[in-house]
Design goal:
It is a single chain. The chain is an alpha/beta fold. It has a single domain, classed as Pyruvate-ferredoxin oxidoreductase, PFOR, domain III (Pyruvate-ferredoxin Oxidoreductase, domain 3). Helix content is 38%, strand content 24%. Strands 2-3-1-4-5-6 form a 6-stranded mixed β-sheet, with helices on both faces. Helix 5 packs across helix 6. The radius of gyration is 16 Å and the shape is globular.
Length: 191
Amino acid sequence: MMKTKNIMIVGVGGQGSLLASKLLGKLLITKGYDVKVSEVHGMSQRGGSVVTYVRFGDKVYSPVIDKGEADAIISFELLEAARWTEFLKPGGRIICNTQKINPMPVITGAAEYPRGLEEKMRAAGIDLDAVDALSLAEQAGSAKATNLVLMGRLARLFDFTDAEWEKAIEDSVPPKFIDLNKKAFHLGKEA
């Protein structure tokens, strides 16, 4: 019997976290897992927080992940990674894009973007895989492929073949973007 695994995908509206969760969900279903995906939107259309829970195992009863339960957190932005650290379980990993996107309080001048977030998370004992996913996505052909770069990083935690991941990409993105997304996935996996 497989214990339920929990993955959180966190980011800012418009970054492609929903595509990432859809792709991951499709892949896990093809591998025979019971999968529950739940999207929790903040002010996603205004660049606010977006969180998606992906839970999988032999039998999953609830789509919600509680504090201290996430095996992995994929974060599209540094501050979002720091914001959700308490959901990571001991021994879990945060895969994070090093890009910084200013939240509203910073944009309006009411607050400053926190400094040294990577160092602070590592100092707190967090297993942090920080990667410049935006640059890799641009190298693949589009800044919008940041989500696939991060999926490539996540792929390192699974025993699935590249062909299985590529099939999930083919099933999840429009045909004209398949090659670009596969390229971004492989750049992320190999970086």
